[in-house]
Each structure stands twice: as C-alpha cells, then as structure tokens.
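Objective 1.3, modelling of assemblies. Example input:
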Amino acid sequence: MACSPHPLDEALRLRPAPSSSPAAGRYEGQTHAGYWNMVGPFGGITAATLLQAVMQHPDRLGDPLALTVNYAGALVAGPFTVQALPVRSNRSTQHWTLSMQQAGADGAPMLTTSATAVTALRRQTWGVDDMRMPDVPAPADLPALPPGLGVEWLDRYEIRPICGTIPERWDGGGEHSLTRFWMRDAPARPLDFCALTALADVFFPRVWLRRARRVPVGTVSITVYFHADGAQLQETGPGYLLGQACGQVFRNGFFDQSAQLWNAAGHMLATSHQIVYYKE
Amino acid sequence: MACSPHPLDEALRLRPAPSSSPAAGRYEGQTHAGYWNMVGPFGGITAATLLQAVMQHPDRLGDPLALTVNYAGALVAGPFTVQALPVRSNRSTQHWTLSMQQAGADGAPMLTTSATAVTALRRQTWGVDDMRMPDVPAPADLPALPPGLGVEWLDRYEIRPICGTIPERWDGGGEHSLTRFWMRDAPARPLDFCALTALADVFFPRVWLRRARRVPVGTVSITVYFHADGAQLQETGPGYLLGQACGQVFRNGFFDQSAQLWNAAGHMLATSHQIVYYKE
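Predicted structure (tokens):
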C-alpha cells in the first residue's frame, strides 16, 4: 500500500526559493485547503509554517524555545514566501526574525505575518512542573467531536472535550472561559515542534464560551513557549495532549488567552498566550 | 525650584538619528546608570525604550496592544540605536518590527534586542475582568523595600511586598513561585504605556523564590499585552499597581513567568509572560 504524506506534512512543505542558497532562509510554500479556517488558513498552521522555516534552516542552533507570531493580514489561498533570518547566535541561544509574504492585489509582495523565534541548546538542570495536569478522564472514556463542524481545519484534529465545550446554545448565558480537551492530529502523527505549535492554537475563541455568543474574532498575536526537548516529544509520539485554555480579560475589542499543553504522562510540553480581536 | 526630569523620562529619551527623517524610525539613545542591573540595563527599561520608539513614531496608529521583546545580547553602558518600522497598517491595527543595536567590539553594529509590537485603535465593547485582583492589604499598610538592595534599577521603584518576597535565607527551601506586591516608579510618576511596560518586568526571578537559591538568570523573551487604554492609564496616574507573578514550569535551563498588573481600583491594566534562562 502506498503511504501518502500526512496533511500536516503537506501543509508544512517549504522549498528554498529559486536561485537562493539554503542559508539565505528564503522559502516558498502554499496554503493547504485541509487547514482552511473561515477567511484564511487556521492560525496554528501559519505559526507552524513559520517555525518550519527555522527547523529546516541550515544554520539553526538547538531546539525551539519561544515563538511569537503576529497576524498582520489574512492569507489568501495560494503560494506564499517565508523569510527566516538568524539575527544573532550566542553560545546556547539563537534569535530569529521571520516573515511571511504574499502577492497583494497589485502583484507586489505584501507582509501577511511577522514573527520572532528563539532556539536554544538545553542542558539538564534542576526542574519542577508547578502547574500540574488537572485530574481528568482518559481520552478513551470521552467521545470525540464529530467531523464536519463547519471549518475544514477542525477535521484535521481529533478533539475529545472534557469541559468548556463550544456552547450548544448561543443564548448569551456564558459564565467562564475555561476549556479542557484531549487532542491530537487526525490522523494521528508523531509529535514534533511544528505540530505542537499548531496544537497550541486549536482552542476556539474564549469570547464565544464566555458570552455564549458567536462574535467575529481573529488572533492578533500568539506566543508559544516550548518546555519540552526533542526527546520528550518523541516519547509523546502520536499520543493525546491535554489542552487547557482560559481568558483573563475581555475589554474594548481584545481578549487574552493563556493555554497549557501536557502529554498524557503529565509532562508540560508547552505554554501559550494570545491576544485576540473581537467585535461588539 | 527647577524641576529636573524623572529618571524614567531621562532613560527613555530618544532622538531621531542624524540625517534621517522622523518617519524613518531610526532613533539614538543612551543607557542610563539609574536603571543598571548586574551586567546590563534592567530588561524592563530596554523593553520600555523599544516601545518608546513606537510611541514617538509619526506614523503610529492607536495605542499599544502587544509587545514582544527578545533579549539577544547584553547592552554595554553607552549609546545605542533603535529602529522602529511599521510593517503593516490595517484599519484598526498596526504591526511593528523593532530592533536595538550597539557597536560591537570591532565597531560594527551588533543587534542586542529584537522585538515586535502591535498598536490598535480600540472601540468600546462588552467586556469583563475574569482574573480578579486578589484581596490584599492597602499599600499604606505595608512597608516599602529599603533602598540599596544591590542593583541600581531596584531603587527606581517603590515596592511594597505582600507575599512571595525575595528569600531571606538562600537555603534551598522554596516551595512556590507566587509573588504579590504593590509597586510604582520612584519618585512617583504618572503611568503611561512605557512605564507600564517596565513595571511588567519588575518581578525578581521566579527560580530564586522557588528554590530559595540564587542561580544566574536572564530573561530571553518577554511579552506584554496591554488591556488598558490611555484614559485608564491617566486615571491611574501616579498610583500604585498591584503586581502578581508566578512560574508554571522550570525545566532544563528555562522557566516561564506569568504576571498580572492591576491598578488600585482593581482594573487589569496589563498581563505579561516571559521565558527566562537559569543555570544549574
């Protein structure tokens, strides 16, 4: 049986721009219909694509430690370019600036996304996970969301809700913004830094839960801190992650979201924050 | 009586680089001895300085919404340049890339700090503060930290500890990383976005509290989300802010910190996150 690539690997495919050396960090990619959101790609896949450019850059030092992605404008379906530049390399950390561009209506390149990343060589030290994984039912004991919920990218994930599920009635009766669910790529796929990045953005907008009202929203900026190294991701393999997300403030058109991602063994793999526009 | 400028205003002073137009966003500044940390400036003042370049850029749209600052290398005492570029302006948000440079040992410019910012026009909408200010004693009922604690910048702040104070004994006996204190500029100064940015970084390293052990540390990346508009900052004036900070994970050389800043009226003004290097 022929083995077709995983949709995530298809979406993350970047090739060096023609007539540029790999070290120039210029890549070309293509939006993927499988990760389409309402008016552009799922933000998590855009963030993962920017990190992918860092991962395949020949001068990379170490593993991802921090990534901040600013969504400046929606991508349209089609090709895009990514620029990844290591702007300073130290002994154990390396700083990156990243950008994504697409041809605008007039054909001129237009910035859609800007980002920064830090990669680092990690050494074994004292450590502790103070934010413990909450006590929740096992994935096998919880039903998965059915496919076909309305946006294509959601079908690329297997999500098993625990609490704070998307409201069944949009009746304005929300009381909190805490969501917990098990999640993984669908079909299952071994975890890596890019997949983890996208998973950090799988949570639906906190304001929908908080208000039980479906107002227009859009992430403005997301930051992911990676607490796991490659070995811990490999141990996690294609297993479920427990995701938790909550908002702290909703005010005058913007709310924040804090999120934590643990593997099933209870190791915190990533924490993430975002600030999100909402209307009304 | 002559009125000398506040040290914060001195530290944040930027002038357009010679023979560049204001719209070019190239500024020159100077490190300030009053905000010196152990091997470079206090990280909060560097972050505030980068935001200051945005604030005085003639093309700025709206107020700060998000700022991410990556500390790529320590600054030495002396002059630096800041570059602030609005890379995309939409109807209500504007995206910025920022960098700070200093002459290296060979005289060539060297990047010390990279950053991104988002500014936004905010409109009145539904809102709620879900992360409530904890119930704490009033500033007047708490003694302030004495001056001369060892790093110069700390004397530029009035800090009235509530809980999670810096350990009195470095005996390895730490149990948590939660700190709360009242704080403001010293001398008192009306709050603005730059001052708020610096205040988001006033917390001492979480790992020192968690371990009651003073290991070498350094912030790698900080993000500040601004939830207040200019009017709310003006209402706060020179008043105290309640600051709260806590770490979630400490692992293999890096820990995270989440922080919240409220004014005395209980309004959440900013939330912040950082990832910090630690040794051992």
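The helical segments of chain B are 7-11, 43-55, 193-199, 206-211, 230-236.
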